[in-house]
Amino acid sequence: MRPPVPVPTLSRRAKLVIGVIAVLLVLFTVVGTLTNVYVDYLWFDETGFTKVFWTELQTRALLFAVAGVATGGLTALSMYLAYRFRPAFRPMSLEQQNLERYRQSLEPRRGLVLTGIAVVLGLFAGFTAQANWETWLSFRNATDFGRTDRQFGIDVSFFVFDYPFYRLLLGFGFAIAILALIGSLLTHYVFGGLRLQTPGQKLTAAARVQLSVLVGVFVALKSVAYWLDRYGLVYSGRGGEFTGASYTDVNALLVSKTILVWVAGVCAVAFLANIVVRNFLLPAMALVLLLVSSLVIGVAYPAIVQQFVVKPSANEKEAPYIERAIASTREAYDLEDIDYVEYARETGDSVDPAKAREQIQESAGTIENARLLDPNVLSGTFTARQQIRNVYGFPDKLDIDRYTLPDLDTGEMRTQDYVVAARELNSSELSENQASWINRHTVYTHGNGFVAAPANEIISVREGGVPDFTTRDLPTRGNIPVEQGRIYYGELINDQGQDVYSVVGAPEGSAPREFDRPEDDNADDGQIKNTYDGEGGVSVGSFFRQLTFAIYYRERNFILSSAVNDASKVLYVRDPRDRVEKAAPFLEVDGDPYPAVVDGRVTWILDGYTTSDSYPYAEQRTLGEVAADALTGTGTTALPDETFNYIRNSVKATVDAYDGTVTLYAWDDEDPVLKTFMKAFPGVVQPRSEMSDELVSHVRYPEDLFKVQRDILTRYHVDDPQDFYNSNDRWAVPDDPTRGGQAEAQPPYYILAQRPGETETTFQLTSALNAFNRQNLSSFVSASSDPESYGKLQVLRLPGNTPFKGPQQVQQSFNTDDDVARDLTLFRSADSKPVFGNLLTLPIGSNGLLYVEPLYVQGTGTNPFPLLRKVLVNYGDRVGYADTLKEALDQVFGDGAGDAATDSGSQGTTPTPAPTSPSPSPEPTPPPTDGGGGSTPERDAAVAEMNAALTRLADAQRSGDFAAQGQALADLQRAVEAYQRTQQPGGDGG
Fold first, then answer.
1. Where does residue 343 rank: exposed (0-12), middle (13-18), buried (19+ CB within 10 A)?
2. Any idea which of 85-89, 691-695, 805-809 has the lowest mean pLDDT?
3. Once rounded to an integer, what is the mean pLDDT over residues 477-493?
4. Mean pLDDT of the 245-254 span
5. Quick check: 870 and 823 in contact, CB under 8 A?
6. Can you spell out the DSSP letters for 249-311?
7. Nearest alpha carbon to residue 701 among 575, 594, 852, 579
8. What is the pTM of this model?
9. From CA 335, how far away is CA 714, in angstroms rounded?
């Protein structure tokens, strides 16, 4: 017998060094974790959502403890029992001699080893379990749907709330059984209870009993799994074209799963009986029976049925199950109550001017509100005209909202859509001398102001091609009254996606520190400064709080800087979307928050979705994929790539731009998922009745939900299961034709328009849908945002042989028009490029679709911005191309048609003949200098050069001198850039 190998030992010094390093690592980890948790708590305490913090923390801790103790404890207990009942004497075989040295090494440390295994396994299990806290809360607070599953006759809530939790429990049960079995086998082997190479008996009685029990438990859990698999058939994908139990699942696999439940149960009993029988023959036979049964009746039999019974006549066999899938998918995506309209059944490819003029007169509300300002294009124009200082900025994608305000001409109240934006702090654009810690975090703390321009206001070549900012400047003035315009919480207050905190507040009587807006006549240093007095922010007046945030942000200035004082607050988590996601972690938040002025305050409005991936028979999709379009990521946030098959716009949320107050309103208070989480977090979501009328007037149908629904509608608008199976009348979301041939989905567009058969205009979110694998239009979908008809979906079904062009075909007809093609060639130069705006599809009357698209020209120099140059119109086979919408309508429908369609005056100028050689329009007249920092010699010179260039450009246009036009445009671009440079800050006062 070989002597045992001695275990290496460490010196006292090595043990001390290792101990110190281990203590420091643990200390840093614990301090960092506790600091993060404490800072989180302070945020929840500030916002009034501590209920969310404690409920989530307690739930995570509970699941961590239960799963950790169960997994680590039961595994360790199994290993301890294996050691406890080890044989006192072991045969002196070569195998046992080799194992003896391991036994001698483990014996003195068996308690430590067993504890270490339990702790490690417990930590892994705990971390896995705590991530499923929403599953537990949903199970515990489940709310009935009031809908019965079509296969099993039980409430849908079982599948949405209960089934996922049972699967979670079963998964942990399997894990514990397997870990305990492996641990017991290893222990028995090391300590002689299991002898693989020793002649004679291979297992001791104790080992046989323990291993039989563990295998029996595992097989019993398999029996439970087969039982749950029966319900899991509602998520089957065997049908291929649809989701849910198919003919084979119901008539073959369901029966097989039921039989396997009993076979697995018998097998489990056989293993448990081995405790008494003491013969592995019986459980071995049962295990073979289970394996053979699972292969024959669980795999082979369903495959035979699918191949020889279903496939030859799948459209007939699957029909009732397709009907289930269609109905359930519509339920899950809230597509049951849709107004389908058979539209344009008598329209040909040509235009009857008389009939068309009658149609556009009936739809005057739609045409006079045709949107010529594209919020996805005009960010640069807003920046050039309304940035004021480089510390301010606008997002890449602006927003559309509507306001009911007095008409400037008549004084009557009129609802009109506006392109809107908050003038935010753009922390990523601070200059080098503005980027010190003091400037970045205590001086430049907020944006200021609200900017709005009527989206349908006439903008022509002769008017400069710039928006009419009816709400603008600093301090904010215009037709939308803004009482509190400071923006401390917004979309741009970040640095490469990381939240930028600000330290605000100062003792009473001290000088203001925060830059508020540029100079006025009473300012001594070119700035008006401000001290934040809002309710937002976490106090850092105490040394302990300052130390906490110094550790959290790894910034010593929290302790050393005089800017942090007894009255200071820290503002953090400042993006409106991040705030709502943190306050309501059970929601998915729409990727496009938008600002609105409510009660005189700038307020961010957001949409929250409740989702599930467990709705029976509903098609599963990937949220981030179906909610993406050509604009995702450019001013909007992509949703996560999570699988789901149920969605509701259950919550409307607001974030006050000044004090960061987050308020959640139950918009769909009938949603069972929302009801469930309202039970889990009582008082967190306010009733819908708490929303003011003014706030309700600004809610919009959310874009991401609409994109999900239109994607589902492309297939599930079909009622007949045969047509569904054969993909007859399938639709497709068209690619955005303005993206230069890139295969990206066309975004939906907000418009203010009349629906066919209605006389009043409503604010809608709309999208055109093509025929599948064709470019022709098949349907037009709209969702109402009007408070009286909110969420009402309407689908205009076009004829199967529709002559209507899809977006790509309309864009092609524009590009190939002689006048348009000539101008596009002119616009594409070293100094400019054409930019197509949103291609709007507008239903006209009951028999036609009008396409309207603005065309912008953008310079190629520093900080270029687009200017509206032309309006394109398509109706049938005719194209209109002019300076104004009215003139373009006249070209399509005949003289006077534009006046008839826009007699409200909103498009307002007397038509004049279009120039024979269309060319880039002049740049805008110089911006006003009030609120812009005052007049300077450099600015005056830039303005004079701009005016001179405008004059030379106008002369060149009249003479048709293209070379002179190009030179004038180049001069104008340089003058504009010079003017913009005069607005850049010269130093810290920027």
1. buried
2. 85-89
3. 93
4. 94
5. yes
6. IIIIIHHHHHHHHHHHHHHHHHHHHHHHH--THHHHHHHHHHHHHHHIIIIIHHHHHIIIIIG
7. 594
8. 0.86
9. 12
β-bridge pairing 477-478 and 486-487: unpaired
Query: Whole-angstrom Cα distance, residue 42 to residue 38?
Result: 6
CA distance 142 to 599: 38
Contact criterion met (CB below 8 Å) for 51 and 681: yes
Q: Which helix (H) or strand (E) holds 871?
A: strand 866-875
Tokens of 343: 């539209």
CB 405 within 8 A of CB 413: yes
Q: Look at strands 538-539 and 646-656 and give their pairing.
A: unpaired
Nearest of 137, 848, 909 to residue 462 by alpha carbon: 909
Which amino acid is it at 251?
N
> Which ranges constitute the DSSP H helices of 278-415?
281-295, 301-305, 314-317, 319-332, 353-362, 364-368, 379-386
Round to whole Å and give the CA distance between 487 and 28: 37
Comparison of pLDDT for 145 and 360, the residue scoring more: 145
Contact (CB, 8 A) for 527 and 514: no
CA–CA gap between residue 595 and residue 602 (Å, rounded): 6
CB 485 within 8 A of CB 386: no
Instruction: Find the distance separating the first CA and the last CA of the chain, reported in whole Å.
Output: 86
Q: Which amino acid is at 834?
A: P
Contacts of range 682-687, beta carbons closer than 8 Å, 24 or more positions apart: 682/51, 683/51, 684/49, 684/51, 684/52, 684/583, 684/584, 685/584, 685/651
Please say whether the beta carbons of 894 and 875 come within 8 A: no
Q: What are the pLDDT digits (tens) for 137-180?
A: 999 999 999 999 999 999 999 999 999 999 999 999 999 999 99
Distance, in Å, from the CA atom of 19 to the CA atom of 10, rounded to the nearest integer, reads 12
Q: Which among 829, 818, 698, 842 has a CA at the least distance from the CA of 768? A: 842
Q: Are 246 and 208 in contact (CB under 8 A)?
A: no
Per-residue pLDDT tens for 497-553?
678 899 999 888 788 889 998 875 444 456 789 999 999 999 998 999 999 999 999
One DSSP character per residue, 741-799 reads T---BPPPEEEEEEPTT-SSEEEEEEEEEEETTSSBEEEEEEEE-STTTTT-EEEEEPP
The pLDDT value recorded for residue 911 is 34
pLDDT band of 633, cuts 50, 70, 90: confident
CB distance 600 to 542 below 8 Å? no
HSE-CB at 358 with a 13 A cutoff on CA atoms is 6
Name 403's bridge partners: 416
Q: What are the structure tokens assigned to 458, written together?
A: 């006439």
The three-point CA angle 261-265-266 to 5° equals: 120
Backbone torsions φ then ψ of 773, nearest 5 degrees: 60, 25
* Residue 366 tokens, joined: 């739609």
The answer to whether residues 275 and 213 touch, using CB atoms and an 8 Å cutoff, is yes
The H or E element containing residue 988 is: none
The closest alpha carbon to 746, from 717, 715, 785, 775, belongs to 775
* Cβ atoms 767, 779 nearer than 8 A: no
Can you tell me which residue has the tokens 């291609």? 839
Residue carrying the six token digits 């046992």: 96
Tens of pLDDT, residue by residue over 427-466, are 877 877 788 899 999 999 999 999 999 998 655 444 667 8
What is the average pLDDT score of the chain? Answer: 86
C-alpha to C-alpha distances, 928 to 196, 279, 330, 518, nearest whole angstrom: 92, 97, 53, 14
